[in-house]
Amino acid sequence: MADAAVPAREGGGAPGDAGPGTDASDSKAAGDQPRGPGAGALLGWLFLLPALVVLAVLVAYPIVWSLVRSLYGADGWSDFTGLHNYKELFTDDDTFTALKNNLIWVLVVPAVVTALGLVFAVLTERVRFATAFKLILFMPMAVSMLAAGIIFRLVYDHDPDKGVANAVVVGVHDAFSEGAPYPGARPRGNAGFDAAGGGFVTKAATPAGGTALLPLVALTADKVPSDAQPAPLAPPAPGAGVSGVVWLDFSPGNAGTPGQVDRGEKGLPGVKIEAVRGGHTVGSATTRADGSFTLPASATKGGPVQLRLAESNFATSFGGYDWLGPSLITPAIIGAYVWMWAGFAMVLIAAGLAAIPRDALEAARVDGATEWQVFRRVTVPLLAPVLAVVMVTLVINVLKVFDLVYIVSLGSSQKEANVLALQMYLASFGGGNNQGLGSAIGIVLFLLVLPAMLFNIRRFRRENR
Predict the structure, then answer these.
(1) Which residues contact residue 109 at a Cβ distance below 8 angstroms, ignoring those fewer than 6 apart?
(2) Stretch among 259-268, 282-291, 455-464 having the lowest mean pLDDT
(3) C-alpha dist (Å) from residue 43 to 33, 40, 47, 53, 56
């Protein structure tokens, strides 16, 4: 009976054997399949869960919180204002200035940095020390925005002895311009002069054959030329014209008499004297080494003349530009930003340039194309994807620029250099104490960055396909 209870398997195989038409390897493979249709997806979500939690806490939650907070006023959650903060954002003068400056940054900076990066990347292929060249240009990227801001506040210092920018500008200017011989000098207060367009003109007219004493003060001893001679105690004989003397009316210890030439006082050579009648210049002369001068007789043919010390004698020497002033503060900060990020653009573009097929470049040269034509018609089109990456990255970055602007413009020019990120900080924590308005600015800034982010995401997906 026990033997009969065991049925014979069809095909004569043992109970543990595979049936006919079945391979043992197929059975093993079948046993390795996932137990359920969603097991692989579930495992993937488990691996993504930590990243999703961090993303929700650090990105999603702040965005939602800022959106809700932007609907409330400065007093907090008890002060619901709806869209009032957004209305104030587009009508406030400070915010309008920030929007205007952000537009300047977006239109200028990415284009300039990308162009410089492209030029540097091409040049590095033609120099012997390409690695050292790239290292030097990329080195500013290792400097933080805070440190760069401090550096460029020193670079843009108005004093040419401290600021590198003005030292260079003043050096170039002085190389092509002699400047005024006696900057800052002026006639003594009781010498009978009126100020006239940066110069000085005598109140009283001098007739033919007359003499004039023209004392100057507010001039340090080091500004007196080394070849200056003692002023004559009496002006030279004028003849039919007008004569006089221009001198530094100062004696050590104030021992001299103001308005009179004292022994030892220096004459001032090279001073331009003009004879003026009815507002028109009728003659001129230049002082000699002892400060004396003589106007020609032709100057007094029409009657007495007034004597004018020309503006060119006293114009203050060129001291450079006020880089941190209201008119130049934004270009100055942009210059600092370009200094930092040009190396970044160069490295990315150089990597794309190295991936360009050399056959395409050589074929263009064999066909007779010049180097400029090869660059414009072959190199740039092949680099278009890389250039787009650099441009979009820089657009996102300049929309968020904050610390460089805050440090460099710290002071009276901050309002003129304002950008949205800085205005968001100032409105929320920097004295405005209105986190509702600050949150509204943050939402607007997010919406401005969003198109560039979406463009990058679509490009990544297209490249993956």
Answers:
(1) 334, 337, 338, 394, 398
(2) 455-464
(3) 15, 5, 6, 16, 20
Range of the domain at 144: 92-165+323-433
Cβ-based neighbour number of residue 416 at 10 Å: 15
Over the stretch 152-187, which tens digit does the pLDDT of each residue have?
A: 999 999 888 889 999 999 888 877 776 778 888 888
Quote the DSSP letter at residue 375. Answer: I
Do 376 and 291 fall within a single domain?
no
Cβ atoms of 190 and 259 closer than 8 Å: yes
Residue 54 lies in a domain: no
Express each pLDDT in 212-243 by its tens digit. Answer: 889 998 888 778 888 899 999 888 887 778 99
In a domain, 116, yes or no: yes
- Chain centroid to Cα 47, Å, comes to 45
Three-state DSSP class for 94? helix
Is 194 in the same domain as 306?
A: yes
Q: Could you tell me the pTM of the whole model? A: 0.71
User: Which of 251, 284, 313 marks a domain boundary?
Assistant: 313
332 closest CA partner among 460, 193, 166, 172: 166
d(CA 14, CA 25): 18
Average confidence score pLDDT of the chain:
84
